[in-house]
Amino acid sequence: RSSDLQGAKVLNAAFRSWTRKQALYDHEDELPEHFKPTQLIKDLAKEIRLTENACKINKTETSANVNIEELIAAEKEKEWKELERKEKEKEREREKKEKEKEREKREKEREKKEKERERREKEKERERERKEMEKIGRA
After folding, report:
1. CA-CA distances (angstroms) from residue 22 to 39, 42, 47, 72?
2. Nearest Cα to 47, choosing from 12, 3, 86, 89?
């Protein structure tokens, strides 16, 4: 398409050059009566401008589409990263809760063992007191 446009520009420039040199008028008898070189040059120049503008618009639209697609992709990437961050945060919270549960479990186990130890000590103390009372009672 670009080469067609370039060719039209070259052809239009050649037409202009020929009309300035009066080259077309030297061949008037070879051209149809309704042929108007000046109008042809103007019309061709207008078509070239319109085509160039259309190409610029298409390039802008394509560029805009690419920019929109890039923006959408960037936004999706941003959302994805935010989701990943939130998931990692949730995972850290879960791990923190699990560690807290484990700590509480260990604490309960320690308390349970401590109570059991205290119970055994009291039991031993009662057993000693009972034996002492027996000794006193025998004596």
Report:
1. 15, 17, 24, 58
2. 12
User: Under DSSP, is residue 31 helix (H, G, I), strand (E, B) or coil?
Assistant: coil
How many CA atoms are closer than 13 Å to the CA of 73, on its beta-carbon side?
6
Amino acid at residue number 1: R
Query: Can you give the pTM of this predicted structure?
Result: 0.37
The pLDDT tens digits of the residues spanning 62-88 come to 555 556 667 777 888 888 888 899 999
d(CA 52, CA 2): 9
Cβ burial of 18 (10 Å; 0-12, 13-18, 19+) is: middle
Q: How many residues does the chain have?
A: 139
* 128 compared with 61, residue with greater pLDDT: 128
Residue type, 22: Q
Q: What is the pLDDT of residue 98?
A: 94
CA distances from 66 to 57, 59, 74 (A): 14, 10, 12
Structure token digits, residue 127? 């057993």
